[in-house]
Amino acid sequence: MKVSVIGSGYVGLVTATCFADIGHEVACVDIDEKKVELINAGVPPIYEEGLGELLQKYAGKKILATTDYDYAVRNSEISFICVGTPSDDAGNINLEIVKAAARSIGQALAKKAGYHVVVVKSTVVPETTEKLVLPILEEASGKKAGPDFGVAMNPEFLREGKAIEDFMNPDKIVVGAIDEKAGKIVSELYRPLDCEITLTNPRTAEMIKYANNSFLATKISFANEIGNICKQLDIDTYEVMQAIGKDFRISPAFLNSGAGFGGSCFPKDVKALIGKAKEIGYGPTLLEAVISVNETQPLMMTDLLRKKIGDLKDKKITVLGLAFKNDTDDIRESRAIPVIAELLRLGAEVSAYDPLAAENMKKVFPAIGYRKSAKAALEGAEACLVMTEWDEFKELDSEFEGMKEKLVIDGRRIIKARNIDYEGLCW
Ligand code: UDX
User: Fold this and answer.
1) What span, in angstroms and rounded, lies between the C-alpha atoms of 207 and 211?
2) Pair (170, 85) in one structural domain
């Protein structure tokens, strides 16, 4: 089938390349001409495992990038909205980019004869597709949703770094459509993936995405709360979590306690759902607690540090790990950010190392010392805080020898070295 994908960020570009890989023809639409050029040259503007190879294979053949909405909509049967939905300062969802994309698609639909389906894949709060996107499409196209064009919501469940693997091996595909006709057409796209399609309405599909992410975030904050209690009782929380994970109703995944969750999704999505709940007059106590535990957790690293070495003024402290998780250069909502801010507030001298994310963190903290290796970052330090679960940190051992004092506070249970003064955040 012929598909157009609006937005070539990590969701849009992964969606486009995977659709091409399962046999569809895809037009990627982006307002950024540089991105369009890169994609047409087979060069992904973002890092994602396996994306480069796929784009090389299909760019100029099954994938064409353009800034031209009219061309893309006219030459496709289905358009996916895969643009960003950032948080505003209060943590509520900002839908301006979604609205702009819907308006541009509507304007293109006005000039196109024949039926077309518009699918929202961006993570949007419940009611957005029906109450915001659909009316904009009707108003901009002068056409009627239903008879003239279809509307659906098809959330993604992609983990950064594993997005292609997750797209090609879904445990569920959710299609929330305004009618059977649109639902059938969107479902047809996914037939090669041989995965059961959950057909529902748009608002249910929107809520499935938020409930999925919010539950995963809740598991992590639960693990952190239990970890904080276990630490005071000299209980190994990882032993506890391994045991409860054997309960089929719990599963072992996402019970790793530590410095908390970061990323462009969990914090944003939980806060957006909190905002939506309050908008309809409900106080989401549990969801607010999930965020509160997650915001406190990283500062427990610096509290522990001060308990161990007292005043941090002019002391050299190493931060190992800047990315929000291993195998990515993404620092969005990284738990290293509040930790570095607090170290600087307390007058510490910070040196940092991360295999991929240093360049991105320089935009946030230009004045700290970035080193090319863990060893260099640890040289002369009075303490070290481990913030990201990079596999290479498991191998660190002699690198700690260069420290002035060998205190290592581990926020990710990743350090195996033993000739150090080791302290786990919740263990
Ligand atoms: C997440 C969801 O997994 C994905 O399904 C959704 O579509 C987007 O959001 P992502 O944000 O890429 O994906 O990262 P994920 O691998 O889920 O980890 C999120 C954060 O939780 C990371 O900061 C990680 O360090 C942390 N985490 C994860 C824990 O602290 N403990 C755990 O047990 C698991």
Assistant:
1) 6
2) yes
Which tokens sit at 68?
């031209």
- Answering whether pTM is above 0.70, one says yes
Q: State whether 194 and 224 are in the same domain.
A: no
Specify the DSSP element, H or E, that contains 151.
strand 149-153
pLDDT tens profile 295-336: 999 999 999 999 999 999 999 999 999 999 999 989 999 999
Closest to 47 (Cα-Cα) out of 184, 174, 164: 164
Contacts of 372 (CB under 8 A, 6+ apart): 353
Distances (CA, A) of 241 to 95, 142, 237, 256: 38, 56, 6, 8
Alpha-carbon 42 to chain mean position: 24
Residues 129/93, Cβ–Cβ less than 8 Å: no
Residue 32: other Cβ atoms inside 10 A:
14
Contact 257, 237 (CB under 8 A): yes
Please name which of 323, 332, 213 lies closest in space to residue 273, comparing C-alpha atoms.
213
- pLDDT at residue 132 in the model: 98
DSSP string, 4-33: EEE--SHHHHHHHHHHHHTT-EEEEE-S-H
Residue 220: CB within 6 Å of ligand 1? yes
Total H helices, total E strands in the chain: 16, 14
Q: Which residues constitute the domain of residue 18? A: 2-200
**Would you state the pLDDT for residue 92?**
87
125/12 same-domain check = yes
279: exposed, middle or buried (C-beta count within 10 Å: 0-12, 13-18, 19+)?
exposed
Residue nearest to atom 25 of ligand 1 (CA): 325
Residue 344 CB coordination number (10 Å): 16
For residue 19, being part of any structural domain is answered with: yes
> Count of residues for the chain?
427
Cα(98) to centroid(ligand 1), Å: 24
Most informative mutation of 10, 14, 160, 388 for ligand 1 (most atoms within 8 A of CB): 160
Both tokens assigned to 405: 């004092």
